[in-house]
Amino acid sequence: MYQTLTRNVHFRLEATGFFAARSSQDEKNPRNSLLAAGVYKYSRSQVIAKRNLHKRKPAGTVAAASAVANKTVEVKGAKNGKTRVIATSKAPRFYAAEDVPVPNKHRKHAGTVKIRSSIVPGTVLILLAGRYRGKRVVFLKQLKSGLLLVSGPFKINGVPLKRVNQAYVIATSTKVDIDVTKVDAQLDDAYFSRSKAVKKAATEEALFEGQKKKEPLAENKVALQKSTDKLILDAVTKVEHLRQYLAAKFSLSKGQAPHALKF
Amino acid sequence: LYAKGRVLGFKRAKRNQRPDISLIQIEGVKTIADTEFYLGKRVAFVYRAKREVNGSKIRCIWGRVIRAHGGSGTVKARFRNNLPAKSFGASVRVMMYPSRV
């Protein structure tokens, strides 16, 4: 039903609360019905009247929120009278001349990302793109954003704790036996967010200094890397050749075609 | 980390060609069943030029494999900008991503 409304009409209807949260009433007994394309049985005002808003009692009191509307303020000057009553919050200085369209509320939620069944915690993945392309790496867990948390381990192949998109990864059938529950809960998307560079540093000094110095990794991050890698390394050393396998890079040699390879 | 391919030409009938889609022959891919792996994979046509752009004389046109062509492993690819006819017979890199494996 809503698809047939143009955007302008939608804005105006939104303002009237036409699209307010749907109650079970709306689902079971819709107040309006579509007769033909763009033609409804009841007009906008008729539908709103049907909601019987004038008869309803508000559930929670809105009165509590507005608190004190006016306050008394002392006024100087001998003949001004001692006090004056003014509004608690000032009225806005500017009112728009025309109605400004309000964008619709965002009601869609991105779904959770499904990872391929071949990617399971402990799987060895081959990175296909980026700085570490060709490296074989251990998958730890999926983050809320849908990205895969992955680690070299750093000691073996120089790949740090890193997020990777599953489209840029080939899952091999090799699995490392790690206990995912032991992976630090600190490792989530927020952990990987870039720190905002201090804007004040853009002084003349900084401009003439040349390249920005690369800051060394924060100590807690280094410690987290080591502790996570320890988990993986313990499991890797138990399997013969697995350490060398992770250290080696993947590449296609002459005559090898990816579609024929079994990963 | 890519499969090698060759640009065979544009999508065409006997007397008319459609330059928006190019035909690519991927090494080692001989049947239409083999092409299934490559569908959707990104393709890069890499070439050199005289003038430096963004600090490099090497340039690239990106595209994707869209479907198979015929029954013998050829594949159709659509590029962001159409490939120049000069590219016929030239090599093309068929990357292994986006991966579905």
UniProtKB/TrEMBL annotation, chain A:
InterPro entries: 60S_ribosomal_eL6 (IPR000915), Rib_uL2_dom2 (IPR014722), Ribosomal_eL6_KOW (IPR041997), Ribosomal_uL6_N (IPR005568), Translation_prot_SH3-like_sf (IPR008991). CDD domains: KOW_RPL6 (cd13156). Keywords: Ribonucleoprotein, Ribosomal protein. GO terms for biological process: cytoplasmic translation; ribosomal large subunit assembly. GO terms for molecular function: RNA binding; structural constituent of ribosome. SUPFAM superfamilies: Translation proteins SH3-like domain (SSF50104). Pfam families: Ribosomal_L6e (PF01159), Ribosomal_L6e_N (PF03868). GO terms for cellular component: cytosolic large ribosomal subunit. Residues 27-61 form the Large ribosomal subunit protein uL6 N-terminal domain. Belongs to the eukaryotic ribosomal protein eL6 family. This is Large ribosomal subunit protein uL6 N-terminal domain-containing protein.
TrEMBL record, chain B:
HAMAP family: Ribosomal_eL33. It comes from Modicella reniformis. It comes from the Eukaryota. This is 60S ribosomal protein L33A. Keywords: Ribonucleoprotein, Ribosomal protein. InterPro entries: Ribosomal_eL33, Ribosomal_eL33_sf, Transl_B-barrel_sf. GO terms for biological process: translation. Belongs to the eukaryotic ribosomal protein eL33 family. GO terms for cellular component: ribonucleoprotein complex; ribosome. It holds the Pfam family Ribosomal_L35Ae. The keyword Nucleotide-binding does not apply. GO terms for molecular function: structural constituent of ribosome. The keyword Ribosomal protein applies.
